[in-house]
Structure formats: C-alpha cells, structure tokens
Design goal:
With 338 residues, the protein is of the alpha/beta class. It has 11 helices and 10 strands. A 10-stranded mixed beta sheet has the order 3-2-4-5-1-6-7-8-9-10, with helices on both faces.
Length: 338
Amino acid sequence: MFNLDETPNAPEEEKDFNKFIVNPKGINKTIQDFFNGDIKKGYEIGIPCFDEHFVCKENELYALTGKKGGGKTTINQAIQIMHSIVSDLVWVCAFQENSDWGQKLNYLNYFLGEHANIIKNTNPKLYNKASKWIDAHFIFLDVETIKDALDTTKFLIENGTKVHALVLDPANSFQSGFANTGNGYADGVETARKVLRFTEKYCTVYVSQHPNISAQRNPDRIITSYDAEGGWWLNKASFTWVIHRVKDTHKNNIIVEDVRNKHTGGSRTDLYNELIIEWLVTTINIIQGDDIHINVIQYLVRKHNPINFDYEYLPETEEILPSLTSNEAFEFSEQLPF
C-alpha cells in the first residue's frame, strides 16, 4: 500500500537494451562467410576415422575426463604433436602433476619414433633439430593458479606468439586465482566461466580432469564427463570427451561425448564402432574397427617433414596407412610414458 509519508523511490536509470540485441545482418554475414569457406573449420591430421570425430578448433574449450593413470596426458600429447606436425600449431602447457622435462622427453620420443637418448647418440643433428622444433611448438609454464596461466598466455599472444591453445593438465590440481570464497563449487563455476570468456577472446583451452572418488575407485566402470570432479567444466565446454584405458593393454578408447558446433567439424563416437588410440613409448596407432593406422606420428613426420630433415629413407606418401594388426607391426615394450 502506498504511504503518503514516504518519499517515492527515484526512477531506475533507463538502460539501453538495444546494445544487447544482436543485429541479424551480422549473423547473416557470418553464415555467408561459412558458406564461402571463410569460417575456419577444425584442424585435421589426415586420418579419416580420427578426423571424423576429433578436430582441433580455434577459440573453443575442450574438457577431457579420465581416471588417474589412465593416459590423459599421454593421449593429449600424442594429439597435440600430430596437429603441430600437420598444422604448425603452438601449445602453451601447464603440467601440474608431471615434470616439464619428462613431458618434453615424451614429445621427443614420439617425434623421433625412437628413444630420444638413442637418437642423441647416433644422430645428434636429427636430435637437435627435433629438440628445437619441440621448443618452438610447446611452451611450458610453471604456475600455481589458472589465472596466472591465462594471464601468461595472454602476455605471449599480445607479444606476438601465435598460440593455438593453452593446456591445463589436470585442471583439478591448480588453484583458481579468480575466486576463493570457501565454496569450492561456486569458485569452480566462476573459474570455468572466466576460462570460457578467455577462449572466446584469445585462444583455445584444453583442460583435463580427474573423476570423483567413487568413479575412480571402480576399476571396471567406464566413466563419463558427468563423473568429473566438481563438474563445473561440463556445461562450459564446447567439446567434451573421455578416455578409458582397456585393462592390461596399451589401448585407450576415445569417447567423444558432445561437440557443440558440428558445423566446424567433429562428432560423437559410436559405442559400437570405437575409436582407439594404441600407444607405446615411441609409437601411436589409431584404430577403428578394421581401419588400422600404424605408427601414425612417424607417417606424419615423414609426410610433412616439419624440420626439413634429409631422412635417409622417405616412405611413399599414401592417403591411407597400411592396415595391419599391432602384433604384426610391433613388439610391445614394458616401458610406459607415464
């Protein structure tokens, strides 16, 4: 009820709501740009069964979930190095649970297709060229907070480094740097929101994350992104995927759960036609059903030759790699990259 003795509140300052309305001309121009091929699609590596599901896009947020020791870092590194070989992509990497020198050694082993110490002794020229190439494409950060990782990456970009993506591995192990209210979930949501805004303006961000304890404890359970500890990346990410290591093998099922913008590439994987990455210390195979691609990284190295090295032998470049079983192609090693 209106009280005559009270002074009415001053009218609220009128907002300019027009600034929130998107002009359809801009939307229509973007659609036409897409039709014309001016909207960049995700980067591919040239292996159709892999590229159908997984592409590296610009200015998007990728969220990977996997059990501890399940191969999150290894699979991510294999994907990163393949895309760097093919598309010259640069990654800023913040590893919180693995040493930087150990991760560089993993990159070297994969790029060289042999234990790096052997190549250093037998072919120092090749080793030095590969090492410099890794240094140019993988920039390591020593930070404790996600905010510092974003700010440092922003600094690099603004000073001329053409960064494709920032990698936070695993995101669970970093402090936020943005919010510290004592409410872990609320702080996580705010941090994820900040990261999403960063991707839109600066570069893609890849986060890996552990599942919650109950999902981690069950060795036979195939987890999903909904099992991720905290869960605050799930709704923010434009690309959510999971890896599941097949027990007592060197194989990881790659499960792409959601691709928000399919127009620019990528799609969910099929439960009945699994995408598998099989790994050794120096070798990556990609498998989907009877479509088997052996030693993919070395195939890409020799096809694209990013270090301009005069290899003694350069295999004929083929669109599709030979189809072999892993037992026909390799003798498994006990040494693992993690």
